[in-house]
Amino acid sequence: MNILAIESSCDETAVAIVRDGREVLTDCIASQVALHREYGGVVPEIASRKHMEAIYALADQALEEAGLTRQAIDAVAVTYAPGLIGAVLVGVNFAKAAALAMNKPLIPVHHIRGHIAANYLAYPELEPPFLCLVVSGGHTMIVEVKDYTDMRILGTTLDDAAGECFDKVGRVLGMPYPGGAALDKAAQQGDESKYHLPCAKPGTNPYDMSFSGLKTATLNLIHHAEQVGEALDVNSLCAAFTAAVSETLVPRVVRALKETGYRKVAVAGGVAANSRIRHDILEAAGALEAQVYMPPLKLCGDNGAMIGAQAYYEYLAGHVADMSLNAYATKSILGEAL
């Protein structure tokens, strides 16, 4: 089954063709990073306009690179939630038009389910059930993937997402957007013990997380150093901040592995590219003799291939949409795709 998949939830316009949920025939991405870097972050209106300019040509490019005609496409999939509403709408409207024009099924895919499914592309042998740590710019959660479309959230951030904090701290430190990548590079050259930063333990659910206090403490430290003219060891601060994020995430994953009995854990989302988090997950899970699945860096960020991968299983579960499909800025990962 050849699925034409569209992803436009933020600042990457992506169109991919995926066969049977596991084989990527082509994955075309038009990045807007250089454009938004001037503003230090994504400007929603600009992102939406750029999606409109790029998406039609990108779809043609995907077909050409895959060596397929429109007749060879069996279904059209699209991210319908969550994301910047204007950006998501561009993808949804294009997908609806494409599905209608080609008389093909329309498959709505939740963006976070797509991130989890990126692991199916990197590891064809991976099958549910397993645990997944989702860490992205807008979401941080530990998910029990009971089946391809049956999931349970064990814990989530109660405020900021880990990725949002990385980008905010990076921006205040004067690092180019997206700040997470630059911060990771700086952290590898620093001494994490030089600065003490807090790790919150919120609420009664041991799997829930909080990052707002860590972000505020880090920003206050930066601003205080500026105000009193104190030299700031940027590399060491980045190392301490990254360590605090990892120390919030990894012990919860370890606890989940112990309490559920699972011995498979996947990592998904843009922050899954962070070298410290990848190292700590591998080490901690290895001590439990658990298998770790982490997609290559190119599949950690937003891409169309992950949407095509999840779409295959949504289709098998009967989750298809009609022309009334709408876009949503926020929507739970749980339940049916609609």
Q: Give the overall shape, derived from the CA principal axes.
A: globular
Q: Tell me the fraction of residues in β-strands, as a range.
A: 15-25%
Radius of gyration: 20 Å
With strands numbered from the N-terminus, the spatial order across the biggest sheet is 3-2-1-4-5
What is the helix/strand order?
EEEHHEHEHEEEHHHHEHEHH
Helix content: 40-55%
Count of beta strands: 10
Number of helices: 11
Oligomer kind: single chain
Mean pLDDT: 94
Low-confidence stretches: none
Question: Helix- and strand-based class?
Answer: alpha/beta
Structure description:
With 338 residues, the chain is an alpha/beta fold. Helix content is 45%, strand content 19%. The strands form 2 sheets. The chain has a 5-stranded mixed β-sheet with strand order 3-2-1-4-5, sandwiched between helices. The chain has a 5-stranded mixed β-sheet with strand order 8-7-6-9-10, sandwiched between helices. The longest helix has 27 residues, at 234-260.
Which keywords apply here?
10 strands, alpha/beta, five-stranded mixed β-sheet, 338 residues
What are the SSEs and their pairings?
Elements: E1 2-7, E2 12-19, E3 23-31, H1 33-37, H2 44-66, E4 75-81, H3 85-102, E5 106-110, H4 111-122, E6 130-135, E7 140-147, E8 150-156, H5 162-172, H6 179-187, H7 212-228, H8 234-260, E9 264-268, H9 275-287, E10 291-293, H10 297-300, H11 304-316
Parallel strand pairs: 1-4, 4-5, 6-9, 9-10
Antiparallel strand pairs: 1-2, 2-3, 6-7, 7-8
Helix pairs in contact: 2-3, 4-11, 5-6, 5-7, 6-8, 8-9
